[in-house]
Design a protein that fits this description.
- This protein is an alpha+beta fold and 124 residues long.
- The chain is built from 4 helices and 4 strands.
- The protein has one domain: Double Stranded RNA Binding Domain, CATH 3.30.160.
- The longest helix is centred in the last third of the chain and has 24 residues.
Amino acid sequence: MQVAITCRHGSIRDELRQQITEKSEKLLHYFERVTAIEVTVDFQNDHLVKVEMLVDAEHKHNFVAHDTGEDVVATFHRTLSKMEQQIRRYKDKLQDHSRDVPTSEVAPNPVELRDDESADDESA
């Protein structure tokens, strides 16, 4: 998995770049199919920083999160939490834990049907 960090109209320290890389790699704990992560830090005019995160996963699933703030670290953390939320929701949707009725209760057991039919035949 690759983590690419790009800066526009400015630069960040190597320590901060390493911290962003390490925190971004933790997205693999939520979803193992992540293939690439791209983080863009855009320094805008009014001392604002925009952080955008693009995550590519297998089977053409792409996630995008962005946030704007005054501090690079705080803005990155907010963007990362948005991305974690998107990935968690997507994974829950894939696993479909929110079914109303378990699969075992959808169709009746065929053995029970035969027993009931034979009981009906004997009573008639």
